[in-house]
Amino acid sequence: MTIKVIMAGATGWVGKALIPAIAAQTDMALVGAVSRNAAGQDSGVTAGGQKNGVVVSGTLADALSSASDVVVDYTKPNIVKAHALEAVSKGRHMVIGTSGLGAADYAEIDKAARANGVGVLAAANFSITATLMKRFALMAAKYVPDVEVIDYASAGKADAPSGTARELAEMLAEIRQPATARPVSDVSGVPETRGAAVGTGTGVQVHAVRLPSYILSCEALFGLPDERLTIRHDAGSSAAPYVAGTLLAIRRVSEFKGLVRGLDALMD
Ligand SMILES: NC(=O)C1=CN([C@@H]2O[C@H](COP(=O)(O)OP(=O)(O)OC[C@H]3O[C@@H](n4cnc5c(N)ncnc54)[C@H](OP(=O)(O)O)[C@@H]3O)[C@@H](O)[C@H]2O)C=CC1
Ligand SMILES: O=C(O)C1=N[C@H](C(=O)O)C[C@H](O)C1
């Protein structure tokens, strides 16, 4: 069966890499593309390549008016949830790459997806090595209770923390033992410098750094008396690392009913 795919965020950094990649798959067909500013143009051309005959729509609603199976979203934190709810309400499976959502948003999308009998795969980071970083950090958290997350990104990144750091912190908070660090509420000085607690219970402290020269790096920092472990991922300047993981998600998302979080769900 050919999987008919709509690419929302077709003219973005990641979307431009995915448009030719989706079109090149023998088991997929690119049937729609979304960008407000490129509406009416050919999506192959706006992605920097040859004409592919798929005209860009200005809204997801427009793109959904034709038949499709899966919507892929690499847009912006302020629109991704609305896109997800719209796509699943129209019976489409959804692959979410866009950052900015948290556990409560995903619970809402999960409910809507289950009600409509479709699958959603949301991964804060579709790169294989970033996914391994998360997996290794979750393994370490079973043995070392004290962990904090440092999130490094470009000066202009729209959201903080990054999706990568948020997913990691939320999952660490679910499995790690209580930390031995002094509670932030007992800290004097400027307690905000201890970062923000992300996740259930006391959460995991996340520190977001935003500076020119970073793309996205994420560190899980574990401490025990007299020793320390750092597990870190650094993203490079191209969107290539996210392509293979996103294609895998497009192929597999219809196997689910409801939302599954993290590329690692597909990696075993
Ligand atoms: N999960 C992962 O592995 C990765 C996630 N990301 C995340 O993906 C998201 C996108 O990143 P990136 O490609 O760098 O973003 P860009 O800013 O380069 O591109 C955003 C795209 O979304 C479109 N867009 C923006 N707003 C809307 C809207 N309201 N309706 C429809 N389309 C819209 C833009 O077109 P226009 O403005 O014309 O509408 C553009 O095509 C970010 O949240 C980023 O953090 C990034 C890399 C990897
Ligand atoms: O905004 C980005 O650039 C990226 N965002 C993703 C995130 O928020 O985690 C991950 C990706 O490495 C780059």
TrEMBL record:
The keyword Amino-acid biosynthesis applies. Keywords: Amino-acid biosynthesis, Cytoplasm, Diaminopimelate biosynthesis, Lysine biosynthesis, NAD, NADP, Oxidoreductase. It catalyses: (S)-2,3,4,5-tetrahydrodipicolinate + NAD(+) + H2O = (2S,4S)-4-hydroxy-2,3,4,5-tetrahydrodipicolinate + NADH + H(+); (S)-2,3,4,5-tetrahydrodipicolinate + NADP(+) + H2O = (2S,4S)-4-hydroxy-2,3,4,5-tetrahydrodipicolinate + NADPH + H(+). GO terms for molecular function: 4-hydroxy-tetrahydrodipicolinate reductase. GO terms for biological process: diaminopimelate biosynthetic process; lysine biosynthetic process via diaminopimelate. Pfam families: DapB_C, DapB_N. Its EC number is 1.17.1.8. GO terms for cellular component: cytosol. Residues 3-126 form the Dihydrodipicolinate reductase N-terminal domain. It comes from the Bacteria. Residues 131-260 form the Dihydrodipicolinate reductase C-terminal domain. Signal peptide: none annotated. PANTHER family: 4-HYDROXY-TETRAHYDRODIPICOLINATE REDUCTASE 1, CHLOROPLASTIC-RELATED, DIHYDRODIPICOLINATE REDUCTASE. Belongs to the DapB family. This is 4-hydroxy-tetrahydrodipicolinate reductase.
